Amino acid sequence: SVDTALIQSLDSAHFLHPFTDFKDLSSRGARVITRAEGIYVWDSEGHQILDAMSGLWCVNVGYGRKALADAAHAQMMTLPYYNSFFQTTNVPAVQLAARLASLAPAVGDRSFQHVFYSSSGSESNDSNVRMVRRYWDLLGQPRRKVIIGRINGYHGSTMAGASLGGMSGMHAQGDLPIPNITHIEQPYYFENAIPGESREEFGVRAAGWLEAKILEVGPDKVAAFIAEPLQGAGGVIIPPSTYWPEIQRIVDKYGILLISDEVICAFGRLGHWFGYEKFGYKPDLVTFAKAVTSGYVPLGGVMVGNRVAQVLIEQGGEFNHGYTYSGHPVACAVAMANLDIMEAEQLPQKVCGDIGAYFAQRYAELNDHPLVAHAETCGFVGGLVLVKNKKTLERFHADDGVGMVCRGHCFGNGLIMRAVGDRMIIAPPLVMTKTDIDELMRLIHLALDRTLVDLKA
Ligand code: PLP
Fold it and tell me: How far is the CA of 230 from the centre of ligand 1 (A)?
């Protein structure tokens, strides 16, 4: 058994947690998560908690999968580590690259036959910046340096990742963004639509912000546009159906590269292997991480589409970039076992089939709750806005901390749901059954009801 008080005191004495106010006393006494199975985690006090966030959007096959532990064990006993620098390679890294290439469907004139490995989403996006710049340099267009991201987009925490993302709190620390990265407004219908505008009209207008930015920067200076298929960490912002086709038209018109950051959206999350399939666009680079191993070990990378790969390969010259753990054999072996499970259990198909439809239908019922506006899902991702007045859609003030109150009630009742300002979001494991979804909804309703009682008090 775990001595909770001891672990908590060592935790606050020694462990600086990510995205945490180190001075804030309430961040001490962290809940100690000790084990997990299926869709549940348990803390050191024995509380069972339904993990509707799949950790950090990553445990797609659920917890406790022995096959993944076995794969790691077997690989560690055979070849625990070797690098992929200097003309060496390893079997799992090669097998996984070939398998990812076969899973990523060609779309239009784009195909994905090559993978560049890292260990995380952030590192992968750093690699994207390096690759995009090299691509344009090799084509003799070194002026094309500017990468356009989106306000409230999230692309990681490294200097380049945080710069590509559009989180103002992150930019405020560390002089970000780094040069040659700029942003456009997000396609958030609830917040950015004008009165009377349909979702579809809004989608086209929001995509138009990209064209306006390209013209402002100068089309000959723009290298790429980076976006998540749907914004995850920004609060589950699901774009209107008209958004991506219009984005595609604009990037094609100006010949700029399209980077699809699928760190959340790949590997079944939206009912397909990759998020670009869901929205039907043609990326040049696809960032992945998280669910490629269901989070059991760190692994990330970039699927490099033919347009970029061809130039990097044919023009030659060393690409001066890579990581000690690029193509880590244990991580790649675990990813192979993880993909085996996803294929055998048909998890992407499940998400775009019956179970996904049931999840969407039950989640939409949240729109009837007096605190909720705009509850919607896409695949196995859900978001909603907590509103002060359901009729007028009056928003809460940031100081009300309504999301944190609701999150507290979730946690108290045995549910992990994430708060992003006044939005509550989930991304449950893809192995949820209908019974699990019913239980999830019961817990969400309970947390919302208790939040409502608190607000009335
Ligand atoms: N890109 C997206 C879309 C993400 O959601 C995340 C993490 O949540 C990242 C990049 C960063 O990934 P990592 O935390 O593995 O560096």
Answer: 13
